[in-house]
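Render this sequence as a predicted structure.
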Amino acid sequence: MTSRQEPITLQPDVLRWARERADLTPDELARKVRLKAERVLEWERSGEISMDWAERLADATHSPLGYLFLTFPPVESLSIRDFRTRSNESPARPSIDLLETVYAMQHRQEWLREELIATGGEPLAFVGAYHPNANGNYRAVADAMRDALGLADDWVAPAPTWSDAIGLLRDNAEAAGILVVFNGVVGNNTSRRLNPDEFQGFALVDEYAPLIFVNNADFKAAQIFTLAHELAHLFTGEEGVSAIASLLPSEHDVEQLCNKIAAEFLVPEADLRAFWPYVAEHPDPYQQIARRFKVSRIVAARRALDLELIDRAAFFDFYNEHKAQGTQSRQSTDGGNFWNTQRWRVGVRFATAVVRAVKGGRLSYREAYALTGLRGATFENMPGKMGIRL
């Protein structure tokens, strides 16, 4: 039997691909595996490495071990549409953190879809009910979203904070049958923070188990727009990954429509027109709008522009000044409590389905651990800690 320390020869390009895929320099990888950088460079020159070090390399770069034995570096791409492009630019190569997050959420969705069908669940009529090419109906879609989620036009008014508004919208979306996940890291790995400059969220369309993921590492005031935007993706039946922080025009018609729907859903035209006379002369009218409707100042200013309450020059003066000044530090909606964090990362609806399936013998503990990221005693404590009723 070959010793795990004996040299094997792999393709140098594949070993280099693994390091670059993890966005690591030779020095950074060397520090992670506790070697000198010269050794890493030698791997990438000759391909000579031991099985033991190949496993350590795979672990350090979050690469499947089998990939290191390929003849050529694999070409990885998102399995859903990538709406992150701007102008004529190609979308940036998705990071392994984004890829793994999408794969994990697809796994959740696929399992829940099968579970719901097996237990007599019904498809949700609103998923894909509005054609994405019908730009003129964005108000009707916003109204339909409120109806489906059981929200009044002024639903956000009683919410004292952005967190309260986000929580209310999330809870109502889950009650309507939508899986909603807020997370700022890969799984529960706090050392792998999701980059909000790469993406703000994504939607996975399914008539039984539609799913929305919101990057919880983003600004709190931006997260509610992301959630509304991804809801619009479900109603138009167009799944994909979004980067919508700037709210500047996208080259994708679907993104333009979803932005319009989300803006009308959060800041209804009639309400803003009624509110505008009270804040138009304020030194910072956009902050007043942001507080009233629990959106970001950028969303507030963009909404005023779209409704022709301000002109383009005023909007871009504010936009450029806003960018130059910077924004508040990004904070997680999770809070510091472990179980509060899991309520956002796993969700009560999904956790309830998993626990019931385990208790009913339809799901193994091993698979339940993989689906939730919780295991052993932590998983057993989940129902009581998260208020799950079985």
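Summary. Strands lie at 7-9, 48-50, 81-82, 179-183, 185-186, 189-193, 201-204, 211-215, 240-242. Residues 7-69 form a domain with the 434 Repressor (Amino-terminal Domain) fold (CATH 1.10.260.40).
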